[in-house]
Amino acid sequence: MLRMGPPCLGCTHWHGSKGNWVWTCDAYPAGIPEEIRYWEVDHRKPYKGDNGVLYEPRDQPHKKRADRIWDALDRK
Fold first, then answer.
1. Which domain of life is it from (predicted)?
2. Residue ranges of the domains in the chain?
3. Is 23 within 8 Å of 37 (Cβ atoms)?
4. Tens digits of per-residue pLDDT, 30-74?
């Protein structure tokens, strides 16, 4: 489920879109997995294929937002 836009938009590693909804970043130069884009995976923690590059918020508002959403999902 999409929650207020993908976490990728607030990450320092995000590159943008190659078109056709293929988003890239330092962790996933060929395309960010949907499960990360749709908040199904907490990418503050390692995830398959990320080459050790994790979500890193670009500012405090994005950190607070990501923490709130992922922490809420962890409680379910």
1. Bacteria
2. 7-74
3. yes
4. 999 999 999 999 999 999 999 999 999 999 999 999 999 999 987
List, in order, residues 6 or more apart from 72 with CB less than 8 Å away: none
Contact, 14 vs 25, CB < 8 A?
yes
pTM for this model (two decimals): 0.84
Return phi, psi of residue 25, to 5°: -160, 180
Token pair listed for 4: 């207020």
Q: Which amino acid is at 52?
A: G
Can you read off the two tokens belonging to residue 18? 């190659």
Phi, psi for 70 (deg, rounded to 5): -65, -40
φ, ψ of residue 37 in degrees (nearest 5)? -60, -30
Pair 47, 41: CB distance under 8 Å: yes
